[in-house]
Amino acid sequence: MPSPLSISQDLFETARRRIPGGVNSPVRAFRGVGGDPFFVKSANGCRLITADNRELIDYVGTWGPAILGHAPSIVTNAVREAAQHGLSFGTPNPLEVEMAETICRFVPSVEKVRMVNSGTEATMSCVRLARGFTGRDKILKFDGCYHGHVDSLLVNAGSGALTHGAPDSAGVPKALARLTVTIPFNNPEAVRAAFAANPGEIAAVILEPVPANAGLYLPEPGFLEALRALCTEAGSLLIFDEVMTGFRLARGGAQEVYGIRPDLTAMGKVIGGGLPVGAFGGRADIMDQLSPDGPVYQAGTLSGNPIAMAAGLAQLREMERCQGWTQLEEIGLSFETLIRQAIRSRPLTFHRIGSMFCLYFCEGPVLRLSDAKRSDLGKFSKFFHHCLDEGIYIAPSQFEAGFLSVAHSSADIEQTARIMAGALKAVF
Ligand code: KE4
User: Fold this and answer.
1) Deepest of 14, 55, 159, 396, by most Cβ within 10 A of its Cβ?
2) Of 3.30.230.30, 3.90.1150.10, 1.10.3720.10, 1.10.132.60, which CATH number belongs to 7-63+323-427?
């Protein structure tokens, strides 16, 4: 008798018949590590409960939103309360005003902000707005940075595009892709050369200030400052894609950590509290170019949805109340200390900033995509599955980041470090 399919395997078999690849987002398909994905039926704190009742300590955190851990009662209660008054109005509602004021208070470079429903919408809108404001067509981005599945930005992209070997997606017109210039990260000379080669043509430079879609690497000292100066000099806009880093690395995101004032910022994940939310904002003179005041069109049926606003506001308020960013730095430091003990003397590179981390299976330094691609993906896959078998879920790709939450206890990270140390012994 064949062993009964696990519930996840059964679900995945059905899913594959009705959903491309069996998943609603490619990186969930485990193609970067082999095997089939598990299905989750519930989540709480730092733990996932799979469809087969396995409990996993979660370091993906639904790719960033679960900064307080999963289903924090402060957020679920806010959703429950808001839902009693309706689900969507299609008119302005008070919560979107409070969200706008909160974002502008947390992120001083954001003088005006518009809500959307995903990080992709946020970056897509920033690109269109930058082109409309400057009257220029070209966009400069960095190899390995991922900004959602925007046609103009699916060029040398990271995250799932990189994991699945399609950094340049099919379906993006060559004529459009030619308007996107890509260069290596942490290379000010390459930036200068790109501006010199495209004089007066670059509408904006867009980047993840801390790239976390090719693993996680950090801007070298002076790099972000050079970018800021070069954009100002060229009359191009500096766009920080803080969909991942925003409201996580600090209350004001990476731009607060590094003291850089971008012209526009794309946001998402944490500000939705787990519900579909994105946002983009920045200088008022630029944002005022948006319809209905200006000529740049942008819209969304569910933008500013009251339930999503209630969830996001509850999460942001709680992070402020519990000094969540201080807690995350303490948890992150403890985690880093334990992991560095576990990996010592092995050919590995561990990066951490705040509650975001990555373990590269290669020697350092890892400063940009070409370095990250030196990782031994076979060893990473073995490490991933050993950890998963022992109850630890990390991102199913070397080209993703890990996330800690306020809900990860000392006992959780000590158990994790022990399991990771065992996994490394099995791999090396
Ligand atoms: P969404 O459209 O997926 O909400 O956001 C796109 C996006 C934009 N900018 C940055 C810096 C991002 O990291 C993302 C999305 N992050 C991935 C994880 N690397 C989402 C996971 C997935 O694609 O399923």
Assistant:
1) 159
2) 3.90.1150.10
